[in-house]
Amino acid sequence: MKKIGKVISLVLILSILLSTSAMAMVQVEIENVEPLYDVYKNGARVNACPEIQHMIRDFAQEYDFCEKVIMGMIVLESTFNPKAHNQSGDWRGLAQISPFWIGNRPIERFCDDYRNRDLFDSYDNLLTLMEIWSYARDRYNLDLSTEHGYIQLLFWHSTGRNPTNIINGTQYTRQVMRFVDELVELEQPDYLEQLDYFEPFDYFEPFELFEY
């Protein structure tokens, strides 16, 4: 019996050690995710989580949006803080989305009940943002291959009003574009540069419409 007890104890110890080792490997893998950009807000460095940056890239490619514009908007809205909460309008998370704001717009692209989403969760928040933007792009036939198209999209995002006849930007759109200009794209390792997945977006030339 003593021998069996020792064997069981040894098995338990080995299981704990292996589990701890696996957790450590996962932690190292997470910590080794490289940022895509150095992010700044009015010249000050922003702590922009690399995992969130990659999540933004994934969503931008899936929904065909410019990742830099998404990042610039998030810098303005939450400074990359997924737990940001403006209680005055119940604006939540990275993109400062309000459940009330969504509920008063006929967003038809939602594939499930958005009320079940946690807008303080980075994934849920960005998914909701992409669906909202997709709705606006389709409804107003926005040409997002141009800077002007994004100005219209950002105008709609910040006001909820028809952007079709918008020519010049607002203070909101100018701020987002300024933060887009402050993004510093980091070089990826050589082996990543061979993958199309990591190629930068070339929707349009750098934003130079506004003088700041």
Can you walk me through this structure?
The protein folds into 2 domains: 1-32; 37-198, Orthogonal Bundle (Lysozyme), CATH 1.10.530. It has helices at 2-31, 50-63, 67-78, 99-103, 122-140, 147-159, 171-182, 190-193, and strands at residues 37-41, 44-46, 85-86, 91-92, 184-185. The longest helix has 30 residues, at 2-31. The protein is built from 8 helices and 5 strands; from the N terminus they run H-E-E-H-H-E-E-H-H-H-H-E-H. Helix 2 runs parallel beside helix 5 and helix 3 (67-78) crosses helix 7 (171-182). The termini are far apart. Strand 3 (85-86) and strand 4 form a beta hairpin. The radius of gyration is 22 Å and the shape is globular. By secondary structure, it is mainly alpha-helical. Residues 20-30 and 190-212 have low confidence and may be disordered. Strands 2-1-5 form a 3-stranded antiparallel sheet. Strands 3-4 form a two-stranded antiparallel ribbon.
